[in-house]
Each structure stands twice: as C-alpha cells, then as structure tokens.
C-alpha cells in the first residue's frame, strides 16, 4: 500500500522535479489516478508552493488534475493569479468556483473584493457584494473591511461609511483603513467625525493612525487640531519609535508655514533617515529660504546622504523663482556628479525651466536636446521658457513637433501655444479657431487656463464677441477669467464694459490683483474715463 501523499514523498518521486532557487520548487503535475488515500490538504500545500514560486502554469495544471478541490484550493489559485498580475483571471476562476457550487469563505470574499478594488473592476466588485449579502456575510469583519476599501477606491465614501458604521465591532485596522481613505479623498467633515467617534469608542490610535490623522490635518491646514495630535503622539510615546510619524509632522508644520516647529520635529529624527533630510531641503526651498536650504544640503553631505530627485527639483525651482543663476548652475553640477541629471524627467524639466527663467535659453535648449526622453513635462518647460523670452515662432514649432512625435499635449502646452498666438501683433482668426478646436477635441475646453488664453487671443484677433461668449460660458469665473475679459475690453477701449465686469467681480467676493487694476486703468484711459480711473 502506498503511503499518504506528502511534500516529502513527492520530492523523492518521479512525478516532481526541482529547480535551483535555493529551495525546492515542485513544477510537474501529479498522476492522481494512480494514488490512493488522496489528501486534498497535502495537495493544497504543493499548490501553494507552486504559486509562491511563480510557477502558475504548473500550478494550474495541478489544479485541473486534482480529483477533489475544497474552498482553500480555489482560494490559493485565485490569490496566485492576482499576486502575479492577472486579476481578471482571478475573477474568471472565482466565477467558475461559484458555478461549481463551492461556497466562499471569508478569505475568498476578502481576497476577491480586494482584487476587484485594486484592479479597478468595480462592476464585478459590486456584483460580489450582492452575493455577500445573499449569503449573510455582511457583518464579517474581514469581508466588510474589504467592502469598505473597495467603495473608498470607487469614491463612494458615503456607502463605505455606512458599511463601516453598520459593523457590530470595529478594530484598529478598519479604523486605519477608513481614515486613510478619507484623507486621500479630502473629506474634512467625515475625517473629524471619525476622529471624534474613535475617541468615543476608546480606540487607542497606533503610529499608523496618527500618520493618517496628522496627514489629514496637513491637507486641510488644521493647525490647532494638528498640534493636539502632536501632543497626544508625545504622550503615547510614538514619536521616538516611528520615523514615518516624525516625517509626517515635518510635512504638517511646513505645510502650515510653521517652519520653527518643522525644524524641531526634524531635529528629533535620527540623522540616518534620508527622508527627513530631503523633507527639510524641500521645506526650506519651497519657502524661498535659500541659505537654510543650502545649510541642510551641506549637512547632508557631511552625513554622506544624497538629496532625492524631488529635493533637486525644489532647489532648482528656488533658483528659478529667485533668479539665482549661479546657484542653479551649482545644483546642476551637483546633479551631474550624483548621476541622475538625465535619468529623471522631473529634474530635466526643472533644469530647462531654471535656465529659461534666468534668461539663458541656449542652456534650456541644450538640456532639452540632451534628454534621453523628451517627455511632456520637458516639452512644457521648454515651451514656457520660449514663451517667457518671446520666441513665439519657436513655441508654435515645438507644439507642431509634439504632434508629429505623438506626444499628447496637456492644458499647459495648449494654453502656452494660445498665449504665444495672442502675443502676435495681429493673430490670425483661423489659428485661434484651430487651437480652440484642439481644446474642444482634447477635452480642455473647460480648463480655466486654456479659456483665459483663448479670451485674450480672440480679442487681439478683433473678435471680442468670441471672447465674451467664452467668458459667459464659464460656470464660475475666477480672478484670472475676470482679468482676461477686463483686459480684452480695455484693449478695445470699452471702458464702461471693463467697469461693469469689475463690479460683478467685486460682488462675487473676488479680490482683484495688481494686474486687474492695471487693466481697469488701461480701459479707463482708452475710453477717456479719467475721473473714474482716478
């Protein structure tokens, strides 16, 4: 009589071979018809090993030959397909499992709902939810957690919260899951309600919970609430043991403009953590504090830490804003020394922009031409640099080149090209209409930046009525929309129309900037409304 089927016995048999990956990896199927005392659990272990080592073909062959399969067998294959990047095969196998009359367990539902959510297969996920309800599994904590996660990813936060609050018991991982989703979706009211409910139920936050809570305060600039959470973090002892939490505090205080406290939070972090160094470089650079950013950069070098691509981008952007050409070149040299200048699209784009803002268009062109990948970001930076320095014809040529190279433009590319057209002394109406058609076809006909450029271009081409139509079609004009139409009226000497739009703007509670006032004064001057202008 044969012995019971085990991994050890199979490893010695002629039915299985192994490959060298520092471990034994079964790869060939078994001839079950020749085996007595078939044990499904032992075969499941072999199936699990095959899936674990990525041998999906062998795993599926074994699965198909098994004379008997239980729910664990199906779960292994469903998860295996998902973990190896085949979510649709997981769903297909799940449907086959149901049609074969196999009743799902909590692991099945949790796994397949997570697969549906991560793959964006929401229709299938909702259908699975219906089956969960039919089988009476809605109150299972693990299944409900997966449902909450799926509806959050769908953006149906109200459905997710109802499922969450319907649970008879909520553990910390479920709270963390919902808090994370709320933070990502930016739903402030639900975020605060969840935090209060959490305290009412005496659920003690973990370090991960505090990360989500403080990140939510960061996004909404809730300074007082963030400080309270910081105090709670200190009292519970999480600050010294969770570097991620310390970095979130740095981000929170810097986002709220409280740089002193951001620096204090940074000082509490061990110097070995490169993330915090890069955070502080970005914080100081983002707040135009050149000397402080350089100081942190020098300290990083002493600790043999290299700035990240995002830190370099922040420093290059600082050089652009402050027109610090020498500093920008030094950062460029540092980037080359580190060896990531042409390997990062973001750095390439920032370099092009930096040289352009510092009026060195040739260096911008050199960086652009040396780029391994002339991405949309690089094209946009090149285009705005050309526009900034008045190379209008080159803007049009670059836009045409992008079309020839199948680089799909975005609102920045399109608005820059339209802006270049409007700066011609007498832009062609045909060209205005052509670019307007591009905006409509590409779906950017509701983008405020594109529409403001079109208002300007049409007015300069002599078609003020088209400018009016575009402005009137804006659902909720912002300061830039109002300024664009005021400028259009001003250029045509329509002072009274300028004043009427200006009054409407004030009534809407929008605060005019200096450009708006200059356009108003220009309109009054061209219309002879000297006293009104005064």
Automatic annotation (TrEMBL):
Domain of life: Eukaryota
Gene Ontology biological process terms, A to Z: RNA modification
Pfam families found in the cross-reference section: PPR, PPR_2
UniProt repeat feature PPR, residue ranges: 70-104, 171-205, 273-307, 478-512
PROSITE patterns in the cross-refs: PPR
UniProtKB keywords: Repeat
PANTHER family reported for this sequence: PENTATRICOPEPTIDE REPEAT-CONTAINING PROTEIN, PUTATIVE-RELATED
NCBIfam families: PPR
Name listed for the protein in its UniProt record: Pentatricopeptide repeat-containing protein
Organism annotation: Solanum pinnatisectum (tansyleaf nightshade)
Organism ancestry: Eukaryota, Viridiplantae, Streptophyta, Embryophyta, Tracheophyta
